[in-house]
Amino acid sequence: DRPAETPDGREIAILGNIDFPKEIPTYLRYGARGVGLYRTEFLYLESRSRPTEEDHLKSYLKALEELGDKPIVIRTVDLGADKFYDGNNLREPNPFLGCRSIRYCFEHPEVFNTQMKAILRASAHTKNLSILFPLISSLEELRKAKAMVLEAMEELRRKGVDFNENIPIGVMIEVPSSVLIADTLAKEVDFFSIGTNDLVQYSLAIDRDNERVAYMYCPAHPAILRLLKMTIEVAQDHNIPLCLCGEMGSELEYIVLLMGLGITQFSVAPPATIPAIKKIIRSVTYERAKEAAEEVSRFTDPEKSIRFLRGITKEILPEAF
Ligand code: PEP
Ligand code: MG
Hints:
This protein is α/β, with parallel strands linked by helices.
């Protein structure tokens, strides 16, 4: 129950990644402050037919009921590639580089519109609901997705349906191009959420699901650390919140490094990792974390970075590895 705060008073928010609203009570029991990533594609994956606006709304209202006034970030459907649907990706030779995620929504605007109206209707019940677009790789994509939100808003307005006119909109930073244009994106969004699962995959050219190259899938790669640093600095310069919701933020050895790089919000899974993450945060000063991050950024060998970070983490949690 203790706050996730460093000994020198830096507050860190720990939120949960969910696929279904029924997971929320467990997250709250383990100390999450809310939901930092709701992967809504699971609504599609669990049913044989496309969910209707009412199906979406029912799930979102269920999530709000579980959360009370705690925050929730609803990500628009991230279908395709590893999240099979409609056999869509089966026809593509490179599904991770194909019509997945926001691109699938551009190809099927009715899917996006149905979901968006439900999200907006749910937003009438709380100021703490935000929208997150996955896989944005250009400013044009962001603008197109935002224009589609405005269309859904207009449709609801015409019908006299309530929603939050100022609903916050954020983008996943999970493609290297989005890191490189983060300053441009930051001017047109309310927040960033870093998806390290895809960012590592696309930056290192390692299929996240291919066991044969899994040994090369390395969040401690110096290139990844530079990309993270760049994104965090842009968010700080533009004064927008930033959360890290990829699995890197749930791996205990990276917590000190990520804090030191400037992360103040983690959205993690599974819920049982939260107490250990909190213990790390409550044991390391921000100053010490910054020194550790600076030291790691000088290493050229990721294995050395991991050994160093595990050493620090083990001092706090001897049972960790
Ligand atoms: C990510 O890519 O890091 C992420 C959180 O999204 P997903 O794992 O759903 O692709
Ligand atoms: Mg992703």
